[in-house]
Amino acid sequence: MEKYVINGGKRLKGKVKISGSKNAALALMPACLLNNGISTIENVPEVNDIYTMVKLFRAIGINSEFDKHTLNIDTSKVTSHVAPYEHVKKMRASVYVLGPLLAKYGKAKVSMPGGCAWGPRPINLHLEAMKKLGADIELEGGYIIAKTRRLKGTKINFDVSSVGATGNALMAAVLAKGNTLITNAAVEPEITVLIDFLISMGAKIKGKETTRLEIEGVDELKTSTIRNVQDRIEAGTLLIAGALTKSNITIEYYSNHLDSVISKLKDSGVKITKGDEEIELNARGLTPESVDVETAVYPGFPTDMQAQWTVFMSLAKGSARVTDNIYFDRFKHVPELNRLGANIEIKNNSAIVKGVRKLKAATVMSTDLRASASLVLGGLAAEGTTDVLRIYHIDRGYQRIEEKLQMLGADIKREETPEY
Ligand code: EPU
After folding, report:
1. Cα(163) to centroid of ligand 1, in Å?
2. How far apart are CA 113 and CA 109, in angstroms?
3. Pocket of ligand 1 contains residue 370 by CB under 6 Å
4. What is the pLDDT of residues 73-87, one digit of tens each?
5. Fold of 2-19+230-416
6. Dihedral angle of Cα 30, 35, 36, 40, to the nearest 10 degrees
7. What topology is assigned to 22-227 in CATH?
């Protein structure tokens, strides 16, 4: 096992480049299943969730080769349509192979993902969309067994906006016979880049960046190349690292996908200068104002930044309410942050964060990806030496975050530990 050892309280300075988006890459990879041959995705982060997808691909006969951050995916010899439990249990995004396998091969057997670290995360919307497209779906032995002769265009309205279900429905509909209309589709940047990729393969999709997607099914798709977007959550996490440590840092990040977070940072008193290619943050000498946040679908404040905002507010003046409207129970970081001296109470789906003067080092334990990011942030701000255990969670989605933090001057090390 590995842990982070962080000597907190240091100011950060300098510039780092943001990696490619984990969540976008996890949607782009299964899209390659829709054609036959080698497709290329550039700017893929080297994180464990991507390696889990690579292993799942290997199990179905797909060869994926990493060359630096470029992933070449060869779908010319797909030998199986089964996504086994051993991979799906590690990563829910594995369910993304359902739509493409069904659309291209007419069959898919995908393990049900089960619960996630912070609570239930259903996949009913994915299954309903596949049924609407004409698939027969049965659940057997913990697996989704889906079959069709050919999917047929239909109307799909999502009651709840879902990134994964929109991606799955899109990947299925592009090869269905006839037209599909998806309403209340997700508009997250991960879906927008997926649409770009599908269109570059020859798919016919109208309505990009809107909640209403019109798809005209085609008979086949060709191989293609796409450049992945940058990781908006890694960018936001590093900005908060700068804000929490009262620092002046710059991130190389060129999209507008983080505007909701930047606007909240500005409300807290942090100075942000946004150029075309980079964002400079200056929080020197700042005790932040308390700023309430409610997570929402894009372009609202992302749930994947909720834990990081919570730790930031723990050093603010007064009291802030941080509400998660996407995942009501995503607060496993709160008891751990309180071990660092924060004063946070959970009320329903909100964290009530009362600002304290300082955080103090402790040994804390990661429970999930974004929770572990918040603990690293807490460790950077706390006085003394904080050990963050179970960092395999953070390795799922951040590409060696300690290296980026070290480049900014943080005192953080990865160490082997027998502690579990
Ligand atoms: N939902 C349902 N039924 C479904 C699917 C979703 O009720 O069949 C609900 C969820 O319970 C949730 C809401 O819909 O309340 C939105 O969930 P969504 O489907 O959008 O989430 P996801 O696609 O499973 C992706 C990211 C998550 C991120 C969410 C929300 C990937 C691989 N994962 O998950 O990222 O939190 O969107 O933005 O793209 C992370 O990176 O730490 C992470 C968890």
Report:
1. 6
2. 12
3. yes
4. 999 999 999 999 999
5. UDP-n-acetylglucosamine1-carboxyvinyl-transferase; Chain (3.65.10)
6. -60
7. UDP-n-acetylglucosamine1-carboxyvinyl-transferase; Chain (3.65.10)
